[in-house]
Amino acid sequence: MKHHPFEPARLISGVAALSVGAGYGLDAVGIWHAPGPWLLLAVPAGLFLSGITAAVRAAARYRRPEDT
After folding, report:
1. Cα–Cα distance between 55 and 59 in angstroms, integer?
2. Do 52 and 14 contact (CB within 8 A), yes or no?
């Protein structure tokens, strides 16, 4: 099986998208009343955190000395 590198930015954006989807799903079923503006703000907030995480990871990878 092929191993893929761990990418925390994709994990954060995926969790944000899943949480928004779960919130709207629970609201549709009637289990939980989802406040609309909060769920709409969760997507840009998740993308923002994902971008910061990707930038930090790229900077850490750039500064790390290469193994020879």
Report:
1. 6
2. no
Task: Kindly report the pTM of this predicted structure.
Answer: 0.77
Q: Which two tokens stand for residue 31?
A: 């289990």
Radius of gyration of the chain (CA): 17
Signed CA dihedral, 27, 30, 31, 32: sign only:
positive
Identity of the residue numbered 13: S
Structure tokens at 51: 């971008």
Q: Please state, in angstroms and rounded to a whole number, the distance separating the CA atoms of residues 51 and 57.
A: 10
Which pLDDT tens digit goes with each residue over 13-66? Answer: 999 999 999 998 999 999 988 887 888 899 899 999 999 999 999 888 877 666
